[in-house]
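Translate structure to sequence.
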C-alpha cells in the first residue's frame, strides 16, 4: 500500500511538473488562447459593432493621413483624425509574444478634425465620427483568410452590424503588402513596434521606406 501511494505521488508529481512546464512554455512563445473579449457576431453571422471600443487600448491617432499618391485633390480634402483601438486581451498577448492571438479585433475610427475658436490658431480637435471600420483575426470563421475587414458606414450613419467586405475591397491588398506585422500596421503603433522588433515578428520583407498606396 505504501509503495502504491509513493508511486502514485511520483506520477502525480511528474504530471504536475509537466503541466507547469507547459504553461511556462506557452507564456514565452506564441499565444494559443483566443482572446475572450474578441469579436461578437449576430445570428446572421454579421460582426456586431462594439459599443465600448473607446474603452479598449488606444494605439495611435493620425491627423490627415491619406493613403495613396499625394494628389492635388487629396491635399484639399478636409483633414480627419484616424484613431486605432484594439481589444485589451489581444494587446496583452501581443506584449508577451509580438503575435496577435485569434479573435483579435481592431477598430479604426475616423473623426472630423475641427477648428475651434477656443483653441490656439491652427489647432484641431476631434469632431463627429465620420467612419468606423474593423479588422478581425478569426481564421476559424474565415478559412484561408485569417484577417477579415468590415465597414460600419452607411449614408444613414453607422450600422449596428456589418458583413465581411468582399475580397475585391481595397483593404485586403493594402493591408497584405504594406504592413510590418501580419496584416497590421504595427509600424505606426509606437509602443508595439519595439515589441515586434524584440520578439522578431516583423515580416522579413518589410521595407520601412516603402510608400503606402
Ligand atoms: C492604401 C492602404 C490602405 C487601404 C486601402 C486600407 N487601409 Fe486600413 N490602414 C492603413 C494604414 C496606413 C493604417 C494604419 C493607421 C493609420 O495610420 O491610419 C490602417 C489601419 C487600419 C486598421 C487598424 C488595424 C491595422 O490593421 O493596423 C483597420 C481596422 C483598418 N485599417 C481597416 C481598413 C478597412 C476596413 C479597409 C477597407 C475598407 C482599409 N483599412 C483599407 C492603410 C490602408
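Result:
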Amino acid at each position: 500500500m505504501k509503495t502504491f501511494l509513493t508511486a502514485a505521488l511520483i506520477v502525480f508529481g511528474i504530471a504536475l511538473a509537466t503541466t507547469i512546464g507547459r504553461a511556462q512554455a506557452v507564456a514565452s512563445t506564441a499565444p494559443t488562447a483566443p482572446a475572450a473579449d474578441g469579436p461578437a457576431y449576430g445570428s446572421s453571422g454579421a460582426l456586431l459593432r462594439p459599443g465600448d471600443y473607446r474603452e479598449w487600448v488606444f494605439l495611435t491617432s493620425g491627423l490627415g493621413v491619406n493613403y495613396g499618391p499625394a494628389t492635388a485633390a487629396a491635399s484639399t480634402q478636409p483633414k480627419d483624425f484616424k484613431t486605432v483601438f484594439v481589444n485589451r486581451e489581444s494587446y496583452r498577448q501581443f506584449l508577451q509574444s509580438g503575435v496577435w492571438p485569434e479573435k483579435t479585433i481592431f477598430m479604426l475610427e475616423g473623426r472630423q478634425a475641427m477648428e475651434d475658436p477656443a483653441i490656439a490658431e491652427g489647432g484641431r480637435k476631434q469632431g463627429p465620427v465620420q467612419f468606423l471600420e474593423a479588422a478581425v483575426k478569426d481564421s476559424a470563421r474565415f478559412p484561408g483568410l485569417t484577417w477579415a475587414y468590415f465597414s460600419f458606414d452607411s449614408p444613414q450613419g453607422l450600422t449596428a452590424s456589418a458583413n465581411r467586405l468582399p475580397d475585391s475591397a481595397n483593404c485586403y491588398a493594402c493591408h497584405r503588402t504594406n504592413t510590418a506585422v501580419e496584416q497590421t500596421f504595427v509600424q505606426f503603433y509606437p509602443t508595439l513596434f519595439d515589441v515586434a522588433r524584440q520578439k522578431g515578428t516583423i515580416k522579413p520583407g518589410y521595407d520601412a521606406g516603402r510608400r503606402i498606396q
